[in-house]
Design brief:
- By secondary structure, the chain is α+β, with helices and mostly antiparallel strands.
């Protein structure tokens, strides 16, 4: 029951109780929670208030609705760190997840001015474009787009970058070791292509990571962007003073 003697709003109390039940696994992932009418009776609050609480938890990715069936507990988000020094696949596999990788595109192109500026290359220099789709729990999780100068990695397109991690191939086959990384993190909306591969609607909220990876001489050998489904993961960042 809710405490009507405290200054804490009933709405906030109901939300916190549902969150506690989710986090303690009283409500297990992919199981149905009590109906709005059942929660109204339990908490002694209006259906409008209960519906607002559930809508907020759906928006936050803690619950999901199935039309005609009810509201269910979402799978916990996967925690990762930035990808600058440890690839997302390696992080996920260390956590015990089975990760599947699909190469969506592996081509070469003449570097346009905007990309050349980001990679500190001359416009027109040839680069590889590699797009990979990662799936976790047999669900699309992230899309990785990498650009790498052909001059630094001849015949890279003949290497196995599906079963092998790209960073390992670049290191072991070409001696390109990460010395430093510049990384940015922002929100983004899914493009039509991203929506298609990630199994979501266009405009769906995504997390976007961009990396510039430098060798010991301060030269960029990979520029990458990774989009993650915002409902599937969260990124842990830690800084030491």
């Amino acid at each position: 029951m809710l405490n009507r003697e405290t200054s804490k709003p009933l709405y906030a109390q109901a939300r916190d109780i549902l969150l506690e039940r989710i986090e303690s696994e009283e409500y297990l992932p992919n199981t149905k929670i009590p109906s709005e009418s059942e929660l109204c009776a339990e908490f002694g609050i209006s259906r409008m208030t209960v519906r607002s609480v559930i809508t907020e938890l759906v928006r936050d990715g803690r619950l999901y609705r199935i039309q005609g069936k009810g509201t269910f507990v979402a799978e916990p988000k996967i925690m990762t760190s930035g990808t600058g020094y440890v690839g997302i696949r390696e992080q996920l596999e260390k956590q015990g997840y089975e990760v599947k990788t699909e190469v969506v595109e592996f081509s070469s192109l003449s570097c346009p001015p905007s990309l050349a500026k980001k990679m500190e290359l001359s416009p027109g220099e040839m680069v590889y474009k590699l797009i990979r789709l990662r799936s976790v729990r047999d669900e699309p999780f992230s899309m990785h787009t990498s650009y790498i100068p052909l001059s630094r990695c001849p015949e890279l397109d003949k290497k196995d970058v599906c079963s092998e991690q790209l960073c390992a191939v670049l290191d072991e086959e070409y001696g390109l070791k990460r010395a430093s990384v510049s990384e940015t993190l922002e929100s983004a909306l899914a493009t039509e292509s991203e929506a298609k591969f990630l199994g979501i609607k266009r405009g769906y909220p995504l997390i976007l990571l961009r990396d510039k990876i430098y060798d010991a001489d301060g030269r960029i050998f990979e520029y990458s962007s990774v989009v993650f489904r915002g409902d599937k993961m969260k990124i842990h960042l830690e800084y030491n003073s």
